[in-house]
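Changelog excerpt

This revision adds worked examples to the README so contributors can see how folded entries look when concatenated. The first example is reproduced verbatim below.
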Amino acid sequence: MDRLIPIFNSDALPIGILGLIIVEALVLVLWQRRNPDSALGKPSTARILSFLGAGGSLVAAMIFHRRPEPSPEGFAIAMLSAMVIHLWHIAVLLRR
């Protein structure tokens, strides 16, 4: 367990999570475009990006918050982005 502590004290974990969110979005959008009739292909690109974008913005806010010299501006912009993208996601779901 002591070997994991440096990972939690660095930005590696949230940046890795953010990278995985980006890869997941790309894979899902490509899958949806190649297989529009499959069960995994049913969500629209807007639903995929709005859902994952809100989560990615929250992870970005965590990165800004946990820095040795926190950036209140970066944190505020990331949180505002998360809220706007989340509202976009709700609008996309209501249009279904």
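The second example, added in the same revision:
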Amino acid sequence: MGFSLFGPAAFAFSEEEEGDKEFVGKPKLEMSPFNFSVIKRGIVEGQATLQIVLVMENTQDFEVVRSRLPQVRSDFNTALSMLSRQTFQVNRPIDPDIVKAYLTPYIDARLGVGMAEVFVKQALIHPN
């Protein structure tokens, strides 16, 4: 179970899945969900919701990421809008690996390479 706190020694821990073991104990931030329309050829075909989690190596990185979270969110909003036009289809599930690969250069450009790792916690898409 994960959660995010905004305080001087804020951490969030996850023990939900076997694959998360290497990240247990690392600070992470769960971003508010991204909600946006899936538009193809000027027509709104559906709605998408993505829950993104950022994992950092240490508390110093956590504080830097937390302080720049509004800029990261803005970058991700722009990136996800572009990605949805190119890749998302309402009749197929969203591939979290594609989203992670697409967002990683944005966070590396904003914060520095390797400062935080992007994970997709949840990806939903609904046709209109």
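Reviewer comment on example two: The first strand starts at residue 28 and ends at 30. The chain has a mean pLDDT of 84.
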